[in-house]
Amino acid sequence: MAVSDLGIVEADFTDNALADLGQTVSRTPITVVLDNESGAPTFTTGTPANITAIFTKRNQNYDWAKEGLFDGGDAFMQFDKDQAMNKDDRITFNGEKFRVDNIVTRQAGGNGLFKSCNLFLIE
To answer: How many CB atoms lie under 10 A from the CB of residue 114?
Structure first.
């Protein structure tokens, strides 16, 4: 089944939801390097750049797992499927800084439409 059979085109997200609800957020790429001996992480900050995303702040979200209760994030963000985004990148919105986690490409008919991620408040 093709995406067109579903009545969905790849531009549906960018031309509609992102165009109507998108807000400017700042993305700062973060590179993580682990020490060979101790395994301690070293974080290197890249150059911030503004991107357009749908940013949704939410109440504490907890998920039950086999190991116990896990924090599901403080915010949620949806953005263009071609936008570069990596785990541990920083998002700044309205003066608050968030850490990116759980990046997922949302698909329809096997084609990527947009990406989403959970965000954890760090400052």
So the answer is: 23
